[in-house]
Amino acid sequence: MAIDHLKINQLLQRLRSRPYRIYEVKTPHTGYLREFLVKEGTEVKGPRGKWREIPGTPLFTLEREKNLKTIKARVSGTIHNLRTELEGRFVEAEEVVLEIRHPLSQEEVISEFLRETLILITAPETARYLLAPEIEKRIRKEGLGKVFVKPNEEILIMSFMKRETPIVHTGETMVIFRIFFTPQEVVTAGEPLLGLCLQEEVPYLERVISRICEEWPEK
Amino acid sequence: MSELYRELTELLERALYVRDIKGEDWQEISAVVGFLQELREKVYELPGEELRKRFSLLKEKLVALETLAAETLSPYEIVKITRHPQRFTLQDILENVYDNYTELGGEGEINLDPAVVVARAMISRRVGDKIYMHQVMVIGHEKGHGEEFRRGGSAKPWGNEKALHYMKIAETEGIPIHFYIFTPGAYPIEDPPGAAQQIARNLYTMAKLKVPMISFISEGGSGGAEAIGLADLRLMASRGYYSVISPEGAAAIEAKLKSGRPPRELVEKCARNLRLTAEDNLRLGTIDRIVPEPPLGARRQDYGFFKRLRYEMIRATDEVVLQTKSLRTFRKYVLSRKNGTEEVPEDFGIYVNWELTEDEKEILLENRSRKYREMGRWAVCGKESTFKHYLEKSHDLGLKVFHGLRYGVFKQSHRALRRMFEELTQESSALLKPVSDPVKTVYNLLSGKKRRIPKVVSWIERPEGPEELYVSPLALEDRTVTCPNAETHGCPDLWVPDLYGEFCGVCPNCGYHFPLEYQWYLNNLFDRGSVREFNEGLSSGNPLNFEGYAEKLAKARKSTGKNSAMLTFEAKIGGISLIVAMLIADFRQGTVGVAEGEKFIRACDRARITRRPLLALIHTTGGIRIHEGTLGVIQMPRCTVAVREYVDSGGLYIVLYDNNSYAGPVASFLGCAPYQFALRSTRLGFAGPRVIRETTGEEVPPDYHSAENALRRGHIQGVWDRRELRLKLYEALLTMGGRNLYYR
Q1: I want to staple B533 with a disulfide (CB 3.0 to 4.6 A). Which of B223, B406, B518, B569 is the partner?
Q2: Nearest to B493 among A50, A53, A64 (CB)
Q3: Which residues contact A218 (CB under 8 A, 6 or more apart)?
Q4: Which residue numbers delimit the CoA carboxyltransferase C-terminal domain (chain B) (predicted)?
Q5: What is the distance, to the nearest Å, from the Cα of residue B584 to the centroid of all Cα atoms in its chain?
């Protein structure tokens, strides 16, 4: 399966024109929107700390049945489209109150690009995953982007309650370009584990990544 | 000249020491230090005569300053002496007090816990021409001289576990234990075996350890000190400190600081208020004797002090051992004449064999129990009239006689008879079964009789709940509240009358337990009308005259209508009588002081006399009350001794935690319980996140102290739901209480 260059160009163009992700903040339930605690353009922060124990910036207060609730930011970014006309008024549930524009970091752009471009091997079940010993040895020796996986070759081991099930590569001969999981940590079903591509696509992908690095310098 | 240089260096060290203790701006100490440094630099330049003259002048000045410094020492300066790097440590004691020693369980950094040192040592005494050698186990904290890995003597949980292991070895071998306490406090981490739980286990074991134990306190920091402090005789260095909390910690609490350092003035004020010096502790009765040190504290080279310490340790061990012996009059007399003020003699004069017989061990344990039960009892306040006091006393005596007869005489003989009858029945059944079984089978087959279904020997019935459910006053508000887990668990808003009424303060979606007032438990947990409080007249006082504490106490009394944070009462659950000791949050956050400790001990005694199970219901406890200083700390060993005696006599002791439970009580009479349960959403541990951050330098996750994590670490035996608390307790009483319901 070859890479769709048109699709990649469109993706990069879209990221360039809107280098952020928009998160709409909606009311969780009906109630009176008592007060806005932010202004248009205010920088807000999402939950922080090692365990995300520090709550995000307070955005507005919503009251229902004498229960005044402070709605806090779940991502960091800048406030836009703040609907000031709602202040002091009754609002329905799921009403969009404001937007948080979350600027994409270099890592996030690369991750989005790779998820769109690579052939992904996802976790079939929620379990711990390991690279097959042979593959791991080769990656350690040669590095990512250089190790081939042939059809019917064992690439991963799924470990669940001490039972180990091998995962076999079913497609054509490809190269392992990216590993998305940490060995011995539980991966939720459906999350990507490995990203594969054809050997001739590797230089192109590396070029695009270095371009992204230039365009989105690390802050 | 090199001799003068050495003397100058020594003098400079002494001056620097005084400056460290009294501060740079005290008198002319900084100038003296400056002159000494200058003189030392010019030692090879100046003429000898002038050098000598200036040296003598500076020495005279320094001696005068040292004398003045010793006379004007404040409690906080004593704390600084105790923490000074030049102060003697356990390693110095092992080198200079004992004849020889072998360190056990590690050496230096290669150690299970370098902050705790254990050694098998020999100590000798001369009587006439004879030299007698005694074997002892030495256990103590090692602060080290600047070694970071010792963590200033803060024992980790496994360090205290190591201490306990060697205490048991000493018991097996029948040799006395000498404890040396040099700790600012235990290392507050929850990793198994857990800081609090291990201290509790140590105290529980030490309460009945069958060997003489002597402890010497140089730096006695609260729970960490108690982990090896429950001794038969407690000595203290004259320039040491023994306190419920470090002055800095007390200041942070007083200033309600969440981070950062408290102001210096407040720290000094707290050090004064805490009454932490040796003289204060002797006056309060929390120690037995003071070992005199040089006026500004003993340092590594003070060999005279080590000689004195050796003499005092032998004298103390002799005293403890002699109290157990029947033939002791003359030796006790000779010993009583050694009052500590005399010069240390070369010839000790008397010899006492430190080995104990089985009877003597029993006497030792009785003496220990009596000692801790009496310790600090003078500070208990009570408003009871003389008539009521005698009424309570006669009631207790009546209970003792009645239950003594009922369980001690009648029940015992009844039990013996029943057991004999049971044995006879089983024996005869075993004898006749091979003969009767085939006959029975044939008969059943012919008559068509079906096999009998086995009969249930005992079963657990669901107890009837109180007829009329008590509803918390919190439920009277017409509004909704948000569950703290709403974001992560998607809990809907809860209508307050529902939440505090039907749901018993529990979120029906995630099971989060909202805090409830203690009256809810009194009314919904126990049978209606069965709660009968006793010793309610015992009240918290202000034994240290801690500034501002009397007002705080008066406020708590007024708002709660109670005299202390501990309620002790008789109650019933599904008809089962039990004794309950309850710490309530409303009175000074359920902190434990003298009155609370005394009430708990009396509850243990009543449970023992009446053969009832004992339930410690902890609505909340914030630890030991700092305003009562070491009188508060000694409630840890006191209550643990009472619990141990209750459990040993066959009682069932259950602890139930709710809301927040921290520090001293968890590290003693609660943590030592064989059965500990917590309600969901409870937080329990040794120290809070601020103390952990400041001690270890690391943040802890928000759920570090949760009941689930405590269960995971093995600190508790189960997590219960408030909605079925009554049933759970009833089941626990029946299943853990065994066949006789609640008493072995």
Answers
A1: B569
A2: A64
A3: A105, A106
A4: 57-324
A5: 20
Q: Collect all residues of chain B within an 8 Å Cβ-Cβ radius of residue A65.
A: 478-480, 493, 495
User: Which residues, other chains included, contact A77 with Cβ-Cβ below 8 Å and sequence gap of 6+?
Assistant: A20, A23, A43, A44, A100, A101, A102, A103
Size of interface A-B (CB pairs under 8 A): 25
Phi first, then psi: what are they for A28, rounded to 5°?
-75, -25
Cα B80 from chain centroid (whole Å) = 24
Give the nearest chain B residue to A53 (CA atoms).
Answer: B702
What confidence category does residue B383 fall into, taking pLDDT thresholds of 50, 70 and 90?
Answer: low
Preferred mutation among A32, A65, A68, A70 to probe B, highest tally of B CBs within 10 A = A65
Q: What is the ipTM of this complex?
A: 0.77
Nearest to B702 among A53, A65, A69 (CB): A53
Residue B480 has its nearest CB partner, among A51, A53, A65, at A65
B684-B690-B693 Cα angle (round to 5): 105
Please write the tens of the pLDDT for every residue from B417-459.
888 888 888 888 888 888 888 888 888 888 877 666 655 544 5
Place of tokens 């360090």: B159
Q: So what's the pLDDT on residue A219? A: 63
Domain A20-103: give its CATH architecture: Beta Barrel (2.40)
- The domain spans of chain B are 2-72, 82-374, 385-448, 473-515, 516-737
Average pLDDT of the residues in B666-672: 97
Please tell me which residue of chain B has the smallest CA distance to A50.
B701
Q: Do B479 and A65 touch (CB under 8 A)?
A: yes
Per residue in A144-157, pLDDT (tens digit) is: 989 999 999 999 99
In the predicted structure, residue B736 carries a pLDDT above the cut 80: yes
Backbone angles phi, psi at A213, to 5 degrees: -60, -35
Contact B581, B602 (CB under 8 A): no
Chain A contact for B482 (CB, 8 A cutoff)? yes
The answer to whether B701 contacts A53, with C-beta atoms less than 8 Å apart, is yes
Tell me the C-alpha distance between B687 and B325, whole Å: 43
d(CA B201, CA B647): 14
Omega of the bond leading into B192 within 30 degrees of 0 (cis)? no
Chain A residues bordering chain B (beta-carbon distance below 8 Å): 29, 49-51, 53, 64-67, 69
Give the CATH number of domain B516-737; options: 3.90.226.10, 3.40.630.40, 3.40.640.10, 3.40.50.2000: 3.90.226.10
Length of chain B as a residue count: 744
Structure tokens at B453: 């279904």
The domain limits of chain A are 20-103, 106-215
Q: Quote the tokens at residue B135.
A: 């074997």
Fold classification of B82-374 is 2-enoyl-CoA Hydratase; Chain A, domain 1 (3.90.226)
Task: State whether A67 and B480 contact (CB < 8 Å).
Answer: yes
Among the four given CATH numbers 2.40.40.10, 2.40.50.100, 3.40.350.10, 3.40.50.300, the one describing domain A106-215: 2.40.50.100
Judge: A67–B493 Cβ closer than 8 Å, yes or no: yes
Q: Report the residue of chain B nearest A54, measured CA to CA.
A: B702
pLDDT score, position B738: 60
User: Do the first three CATH levels of A20-103 and A106-215 match, i.e. the same topology?
Assistant: yes
